[in-house]
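for ur thesis appendix - Dual specificity protein phosphatase. copy paste whatever u need, i formatted it the way the template wanted (i think)
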Amino acid sequence: MVTMEELREMDCSVLKRLLNRDESGGGALGLLGGGKCLLLDCRPFLAHSAGYIRGSVNVRCNTIVRRRAKGSVSLEQILPAEEEVRARLRSGLYSAVIVYDERSPRAESLREDSTVSLVVQALRRNAERTDICLLKGGYERFSSEYPEFCSKTKALAAIPAPVPPSATESLELGCSSCGTPLHDQGGPVEILPFLYLGSAYHAARRDMLDALGITALLNVSSDCPNHFEGHYQYKCIPVEDNHKTDISSWFMEAIEYIDAVKECRGRVLVHCQAGISRSATICLAYLMMKKRVRLEEAFEFVKQRRSIISPNFSFMGQLLQFESQVLAASCAAEAHSPSAPLRERGKATPTPTSQFVFSFPVSVGVHSAPSSLPYLHSPITTSPSC
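the 3d part is after this line
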């Protein structure tokens, strides 16, 4: 078996030249001989979301993946949503794969249980004909030397909170004398390039929608009007913000709608009354499903962009249940993958003794009726109906 010390290394200047060639050629990142190169970001989802080398793909290797992998991860586990990438790797269509973490200076410094080490081992098992290289110094060094080849999110925490309008401005805006509510201040926030989150007030501001390039709206309420049905595409999810509502039954329909807008190169605003509970829940479910991240990571990601989100306790329970279903589906796909060891696939799958696929701090029955969902002891404070 090839050790980490024998892993090839790549200087940041070499990657910069490859990226330059990529931009001048207008195609995928290329190497000599016409082969293509894959760039894998082995950092956590939140770190990747804050900043990454352009063109890189973020691998998934959270604690649950590690625990289930028992020291050996598969392509299905680290690249669950990138079916085409997995197929190209197995077919040997990439001439090289470049992996990077935050700052590892040399291959010999990598720990055996590090994400990079686990990813490299998976690549060696499934892409034997492909060269694998470690970017020396990782994202930290590359971004400091060549920031023009990196995409970075604004320092969201440094953005000052909107200043409440004066009494005169409030009257001019048609607001009450107490000023604009916090959930209506500013504008819709970008969750992904095609996905925005906001309130009913934002959904009623055509100037805001047009400025953001919004083409469709997902109205997660039973009473918010659709103001511009002749101008935008609309879909309604008529749910209330209370502990009896089964919002999870709408998750897949909402995800399919968002994907349909994305495929048409449009942008969708997901909103409810205040953009705090119902619409935030839908955005969290989308991230969990499409990015294969845990609820904790998705919640932090969205909260960094819209700090006032607070799904009610029942919705959080349903999201935890959805998390277990999403991760279970990923593991099932991995078990039936071509790379799964024959001895493992030959074993009879035991019938679970528990209805839960994973153990969570708060458990919600997989087949529980919406009204029987228990309240969750969540650190997140509750908010007025939204």
